[in-house]
Each structure stands twice: as structure tokens, then as C-alpha cells.
Design goal:
This protein is α+β, with helices and mostly antiparallel strands and 127 residues long. 31% of the residues lie in helices and 21% in strands.
Length: 127
């Protein structure tokens, strides 16, 4: 991800890189009308950008860069709730990270919206 990006990043996590890219493109299509700045953030070929830190599972992560907002957060929540086995990672500009599955999104239909709305002003980070 470009370090100078000041918005939000949503990463689709999957062991299958093609499925991760397909899902990220599907999510981007769902967000395009609500956030015209949203764009794909694909890992460089052969880079380690698609894997987690040492000791974590190795999986492809395909990101979306966006400016967010409550409507965008609601669209992400709805998209994720449709796919209970999918995991996404949401990163705020303040560096706080939320990892959520489709099952969790179904159980708490405002989880992502609350996370994006809390920009770290209270000094806490979710995760």
C-alpha cells in the first residue's frame, strides 16, 4: 500500500490469490458508486505483501484503498455478511486494525461502521 495514502484500507484475505482478487474486485464494484476514490491495491508479483507476519498463516491479501464514510462501511458490512467464510482486515489512517469474518459481520451489523467512525480519538485501537 502506498504509505502516503491517508484513507482506509480493506484487505480481502484468502489462501487462493485468484479468489482474493475476484472478491476484492466484487467489493470494489459494490463500493464504486459510494466512493469514487476507491481503488484496488494489489501486491507486487513475488512480494511478501500477501503474507502475514512471521508465525501467522500465509495468505494472499488484496487491498482496497478508500476514503470510507458510513455508507461505504454499511456496504462493506453487507458484502462481508453474505460470505461467512471470508475474512477482511480493515486498517484506519491512525494505524488501528480490525480483522473480521463474514460470520462476525452477520452477528454485529455495525461492527465495521463503528470501527471506521472511531478514528482513534479516544487513544484506543481495536484488533
Amino acid at each position: 500500500m502506498p504509505e502516503n495514502h491517508t484513507g482506509y484500507r480493506i484487505s480481502v484475505v484468502d489462501e487462493d490469490p485468484l479468489r482474493a482478487r475476484r472478491d476484492a474486485r466484487e467489493l470494489l464494484a459494490a463500493l464504486a458508486e459510494a466512493d469514487s476514490t476507491a481503488k484496488l491495491d494489489l501486491p507486487e508479483p513475488g512480494s511478501l505483501a500477501g503474507s502475514f507476519d512471521k508465525g501467522g498463516p500465509s495468505a494472499e491479501t488484496v487491498g482496497l484503498l478508500l476514503s470510507a464514510g458510513s455508507f461505504v462501511a454499511a456496504l462493506v458490512q453487507v458484502w462481508l455478511a453474505r460470505i461467512p467464510q471470508r475474512t477482511i482486515v480493515v486498517k484506519r489512517p491512525d494505524g488501528a486494525v480490525l480483522q473480521v469474518t463474514g460470520k462476525e459481520a452477520r452477528e454485529d451489523d455495525t461492527l465495521i461502521e463503528r470501527f471506521l467512525a472511531d478514528d482513534g480519538r479516544d487513544g484506543t485501537a481495536a484488533g
